[in-house]
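Reopening: structure tokens for the guanosine-5'-diphosphate complex, inputs below.
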Amino acid sequence: MFKKWFGKKADEPQEANPEKTTEKDADKGTAKAAEKAAAPPAAAPAPSLAPAGPPAAARSASRRGAWSLLKAGLAKTRAGLKGLFSFRGKLDEAAISQIEAQLYAADFGPEMVRELIDGPKGIRAAWKAGAFEEADLVPGFLRSLLREILTRRSGELKRAAAGPTVYLVAGVNGTGKTTSIAKLAFLLKRGGSKVLLAAGDTFRAAAVEQLRVWSQRLEIPIVTGKPQADPASVVYQALDQLQRESFDYVIVDTAGRLHTQKNLMRELKKIREVIRRKVPGAPHESLLVLDATTGQNALNQALAFKEEIEITGIILTKLDGTAKGGIVVTINNRLEIPVKLVGVGEGLEDMESFQPENFVDALLEEEAAS
Ligand SMILES: Nc1nc2c(ncn2[C@@H]2O[C@H](COP(=O)(O)OP(=O)(O)O)[C@@H](O)[C@H]2O)c(=O)[nH]1
Ligand SMILES: [Mg+2]
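Re-run output (same inputs, fresh job):
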């Protein structure tokens, strides 16, 4: 049943697809670019990712930078939701139907739309209780309800209480694993941490090369194996180096795989086992990378992966390439796994830790007021 969106034969590792482009290309040179240009060139990292938090001033500059980044990344979704700001007078059934349709269009997903519209704290209940004499209260109402729902299950990236932290990164091919690893390594390094990369995607030389290029750009060491080497052995070597040279973090890249590829899922389990045995308490996060532009399919991928291996957090990429940013809400709610990082572009700085308040504000800010 997953074949139509996975689209590859079982047990055949998927090929890397660095040329893959998204709708984002159409955005080049537009408002997004202008907004990015206006942002501080080197915003400090999200405090949670730095070993010792940056000073307060840097932190507030960072928040501003991250805020405009997220706002730019969610531009398409926000544009799709702008009808929510147009209601005037008293709310009625027709307006509620329109709200419902817009939430669906933004990929909030059936369960979440039901909760927002018909849940005990939803719009219809509030309307019946007389809370909507003024329909222009809708965006504010949705903002606070969404914040509450998202905060139920949100979380920062975990770190080892003492000693090195290991992050394992997995997912379907082309979702943005390698790029996200580079972005994360960049954030951690900028926060003052010593980072090591492990090129666990040994299936294709090009995949190792891609991570090597990032490692050179970032000036972060990398452990690679021979072509077709057992990825678990590469990870083992990386963990050896981690312990010998006292790194703070190792981030493990893996080959793209489908949950139906049983031998590749076994391989992933083996990698986890090697990590678990070699570093007590590790991996501190097993992160599944999902491509937001695939909408509800991303959710299906996650459900399928979750059946196979333990996933502790989601990296949701390419939010900039979709008008369906509501998928973040769906994923957070349905999976019982928090979205921890969101990717909003191809550049190194285009990722941030997921914070419900910022996300909801960026999603539902009235364009005229921004
Ligand atoms: N627009 C956009 N593109 C992204 C993002 N993250 C990754 N990509 C692009 O997605 C493509 C596949 O990324 P890659 O990291 O090679 O995926 P992998 O196969 O999962 O390792 C590349 O062209 C990346 O530049 C993102 O947040 N936004
Ligand atoms: Mg890759």
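The two ends are 43 Å apart (CA to CA). The pocket of magnesium ion (ligand 2) is lined by residues 16, 177-178, 201, 207 (CB under 6 Å). Marking as resolved unless the reporter disagrees.
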